[in-house]
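Recall from the previous chapter that SMILES is a line notation for molecules. Here it describes magnesium ion.
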Amino acid sequence: MNIETTTQADATNAVVEARNLDLVFPTNDGPVQALKDVNLTINKGDFVSFIGPSGCGKTTFLRVMAALEQPTGGEITVNGMTPDEARRERAYGYVFQASGLYPWRNIARNIKLPLEIMGYSKAEQEKRVNEVLELVELSGFGGKYPWQLSGGMQQRASIARALAFDADILLMDEPFGALDEIVRDHLNEQLLKLWARTNKTIGFVTHSIPEAVYLSTKIVVMSPRPGRITDVIESPLPKERPLDIRDSPEFIEIAHRVREGLRAGHSDD
Amino acid sequence: MNIETTTQADATNAVVEARNLDLVFPTNDGPVQALKDVNLTINKGDFVSFIGPSGCGKTTFLRVMAALEQPTGGEITVNGMTPDEARRERAYGYVFQASGLYPWRNIARNIKLPLEIMGYSKAEQEKRVNEVLELVELSGFGGKYPWQLSGGMQQRASIARALAFDADILLMDEPFGALDEIVRDHLNEQLLKLWARTNKTIGFVTHSIPEAVYLSTKIVVMSPRPGRITDVIESPLPKERPLDIRDSPEFIEIAHRVREGLRAGHSDD
Amino acid sequence: MKTLIAVLTVLSVIIAFWYAACLPMNIKGVLTEAERAGAEVTPAGAKERRDLGEFGLVLDNRFAIPATWAQDRPRLPAPHQVAQELWKTTGAMVLKGKMMSKRSLFYHGWVTLSATLLGFAIGTGLGILLAVGIVHSRVMDMSVMPWAIVSQTIPIIALAPMIIVVLYSVGVQGILPKAVISAYLSFFPVVVGMVKGLRSPDGMQLDLLRTYNASTNQGFWKLRLPASMPYLFASLKIGIAASLVGAIVGELPTGAVAGLGARLLGGSYYGQTVQIWSALFAAAILAACLVALLGLIERSVLKRMGMGA
Amino acid sequence: ADEVRLQLQWVTQAQFAGYYVALDKGFYGEEDLDVTILPGGPDIAPPQVLAGGGADVMLNWMPSALAAREKGLPVVNIAQPFKTSGLMLTCWKDTGITSPADFKGKTIGVWFYGNEYPFLSWMSKEGISTDGGEDGVTVLKQGFNVDPLLQRQADCISTMTYNEYGQVLDSGVSEDELVTFKYEDQGVATLEDGIYALEANLEDPAFQDKMVRFVRASMKGWKYAEANPSEAADIVLDNDASGAQTEAHQQRMMAEIAKLTAGSNGSLDPADFDRTVSTLLGGGSDPVITKIPEGAWTHSITDAALN
Amino acid sequence: MILVILAVLVWCGGWWLNSRLANGSYAATREVQLLVPVIFGLTLVLVWQLLVRGLMVPLVILPAPTDIASAFGANLPKLWEDFLQTFVKGALSGYVIGCSAAFLMAIVMDRSDFLRRGLLPVGNFVAALPIVGTAPILVMWFGFDWHSKAAVVVVMVFFPVLVNTVAGLRETSAMQRDLMQTYAASYWQSFFKLRLPAALPFIFNGLKISTTLALVGAIVAEFFGSPTVGMGFRISTSVGQLALDMVWAEIVVAALAGSMFYGAVALVEKSLTFWHPSQRR
Ligand SMILES: Nc1ncnc2c1ncn2[C@@H]1O[C@H](COP(=O)(O)OP(=O)(O)OP(=O)(O)O)[C@@H](O)[C@H]1O
Ligand SMILES: Nc1ncnc2c1ncn2[C@@H]1O[C@H](COP(=O)(O)OP(=O)(O)OP(=O)(O)O)[C@@H](O)[C@H]1O
Ligand SMILES: Cc1ncc(C[n+]2csc(CCO)c2C)c(N)n1
Ligand SMILES: [Mg+2]
Ligand SMILES: [Mg+2]
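With both inputs in hand, we obtain:
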């Protein structure tokens, strides 16, 4: 099945526009279709979550948006340009599935890395590093090296790194996977605040249904082999979201729909 | 604070008995106390979950049980022996936090690894591999190499590997971290069934409160630096647990208690 | 500490074995000498002994055992003979205030060392440049790498005289020809190690920079170079040992007037086995010192980079 | 002062005493020459150095020089301070060898680098094959020391009267344990240690003049060395940068060298040249030179120098 | 002069062609992967030829490729004999003995931490002994025939293989080892199922380095005494006769043999360590 998803939106506002996107990896035991006929529009200021079984192509789609992977079919524009042009304009902040900190730089200098590359002044660099370290609750750890931190702390550092510069589009690949629920809740709140304050557009991969529902304005449910979009759910929740919104009926309603979508994808196998 | 936890149980039935366990890692910037004064009894057939913030010593405690780490103080017995003797008797199935598959073996041969070592017959090996591949929904992937699978599939393969042989004690370190909720639910159910059928004793590390509550007969809440047990919650839930038990008041009650315990640990920092 | 004990144990076993090996190795020579000096030897006559087993000879002529450790021109000099020669040509020279005399190994060691260091610098520089080229240019990678391997299958000792003559003919003399040969031997390990190192960043680390739209230059200085440091040092250690060998080889076709190579060759012409062995050991000690020095530099560099785990 | 670079064909030793004496005693200076002596070794082919412009003159054995000529490097003998050959085979007496006919079935160490041709020529004269077996000799490429004999890996080895033979004796062997065959006595001697320059350079009168002065001073050095062997040996020793030479050995070498230079005033005897050529042409299947060389020597330098 | 200019042109042309090929759409095919280095080599040879002729370099300094080729063609039987003596008898036998000995030694060192600590520094020290010094000694000990050449090769290849194997056998991750612990696997089980496969990439590193060392070692050893056959023998005697075309013909044989040897080991490596990231691409 290949449902036509609801992606009609005011085109002027569209940040990402994917039309009939296909991506096939050639591997030595035959081609792997990672994305098939993907259509999606992301508007400015959207918080889009991608959810779906492992191997369904979430990471791949994020990578296509960031011009890290070339689609083999279809079209995609970012801010009206090709993803690669957008990349050149430094439109992206990307948080990878694993932390990917450079072991020879301490945490502060890891966070400075994009700032150095983009030519921020020394003073500005210092200021921003302190700000984002505060944000992810790692103040005081700037001088430590990655291997001196636990896995969860490393992941937070890599989030800080992506937040340090002013990218319009923030792409996050399971950023909170390795964190416990308490820290996760806290970071979810912080992320929402940041989003509200800066009006960034965010693409967010997660395996957690509550997390997806809590954070998103739009939830994209995907199904595997080949990776397709099975459902796109626009969230009616208000922008202001206290943690206990998770007990509201609307929330439970949406979560239910997401779960059903996921289940449908699974039964495809 | 160092609360004396409720670990009195009929000693005859005890599989794991830890008394005043201490573990200090000597590192070059000073010793790190990973476990401090840990007391815990695990009885035969228990399903014990460990939950706590990252870096609190969950992995370390599992490793001590499996004789992969030597405590620096206190005592621990497994089946009345030292952990090392128990290891020699092949009492453990261990699922590591990362999948740890051997890249030079395909999935089926990775699963065969413990069977080869323990001297199962070829026919038996084949049979068991097929069984467990089925169990984790990887039938048909036996011939693939680890790097050809997504992270979640690798994790499932490593679970299959630990289930393939008949270990009395199954120790699982965040086995479902990289999986989506549906698969996770499915595997949770399967794990419960397996546990009920085989009467294995299971030690299980997770960051998910619902998962811990859903699976366990006993939930151990830990707090960090130094790693201590702050609470041990015996679950009143019946052994037979349909998925929707998660909406029952008892369930929510226990989940609440766990969350409080976790929060208390965090405020310690 | 544990290492020290282990090394000492191994060393003492080796030395004991070495002394034992002197018996069969030197017995024939010793017996011939003894016979000339009028001693009673079984069986008599060097020709008769020629095809006999050495162990049998040792057993039949036990009186000759001490002499196997004290020959003038032994087939295998005993450890103390080598040590004495080393002392005579190093420490004793210093005590006599003739540290830089022609009979001092410090003098010869310095001659070799200077060519080694120059060659190492050239070879390392070249190797790093090549590696950078190979990593950044597909053409270089595909065309140069196989030929770099081929270049190492050419016996340097055959090329060395020609390299020297060719350099002579374009007016390059002195220390440089030796350094060129030493560079020829040291560039390869550096290229291989450095290419590996510069390619060691994984896909994610590279992708990260792509999302920042970092330039190739920034990618090199901020990611590839730091990531390659451990590999670089590993290959530098191999490279400096190769440099030393190169400098020694290079000394032979330049008239072997001075340097450890000259000592080796001189010892070889005149059958001075003790001199050969002491020059050999001097070379190995020098190499060990150089490698240890690099190890120290590595430790401090990596530590400063935060990788000194 | 005019610069002259002399390429020796071996490491610094009394074999080259004349040149070191001339340098040390200022004979070169008197001729207004600034001479640099470049020591050689087994890895140095002096003709190659000459061809590469690394030296102006070289010392060489004639077989090697003539081979270079045939390979297209026109070197010319301008003086011949060595009259007689010092090359010989040294054998263990207890192998039963008394004459060249007894070589059959024996193992013999030979120097190559062009030095093998007199040997091959000799063997073909004796009718002995050189590819091993019962009726032939097994040839080894000998390194430049006497170990193969002392270790009895070879029954005979090549030695120079002035050097390797002395080393054999130095290692404690007495002369009556050995049998020697001098190439000179076998009629297969070739000319050793001649002074050679490039033909093209010799066309330049200035170079010629320089060579005349060089040869004159060198011969003066040789004659001084012959007359004062002990002082000459000391001079050589002072010039040895490798520190490997010993006093006693150089003294004896100088004494032996004096015997070889004794008959020469520096000028090449054409008869010796012809004998060398015929020896080389008789070298069996794969000779080092294939035809009689033309213009391989000149008397013009010595004639001018010795008048 | 014209030839020199031509040489520059040929160089630029070859480079341009290779750039087109390497950056073209067929760059990943086997043919192009082979073609590019071949074109590079041919360009080098052509430039060499033109320069030698253009600058009129004498034969006794550097022969032109055509001279070398004709010497090669004219001396095939001799070259073949030399190849058998030096490569097959000397290098190959030494390589096999040296690598096996190193491998066994590495296992012993892997089993005993004490021996590893003690032997590695000593081994590194011995490995630093320059071959030009050890070769005469080994020729003195083992005679003039190929046995001494094999001995030199053994000494040369032993330590690279040893060091790499020892490093490789320790290369397993803590988790991989812990897994074996939980199975209570015996030493040999964990050796064959974990350490050995994990060590293969390292072992092959050592084996590959050793291929070039083996050939060079065998040739160099012949400089210090040999029978009247062998690549090193031929090179050293031909230098004496200024037959540089022959010298280079032997060098070509050495390069061919060495590269093929290296290539063969690399192929085996590829088939055994297909799983390693460096082989996956
Ligand atoms: N470089 C690659 N080469 C070949 N196949 C690939 C590659 N990258 C991904 N794939 C395949 O493409 C599919 C989609 O992979 P992707 O990483 O996008 O999944 P995902 O949804 O991010 O999964 P997970 O939740 O496990 O991270 C998978 O089947 C995977 O095996
Ligand atoms: N080998 C080691 N050397 C030094 N310190 C260690 C070592 N292993 C663990 N630690 C430290 O011990 C503490 C407990 O670590 P452990 O891995 O048990 O945490 P955890 O509870 O499993 O965390 P997570 O949820 O992130 O996996 C941490 O502070 C960690 O930094
Ligand atoms: C490259 C080369 N090596 C050695 C000799 C022959 N030779 C000349 S002097 C000497 C030493 C005598 O003690 C020897 C062996 C040569 N002609 N060319
Ligand atoms: Mg993913
Ligand atoms: Mg853990």
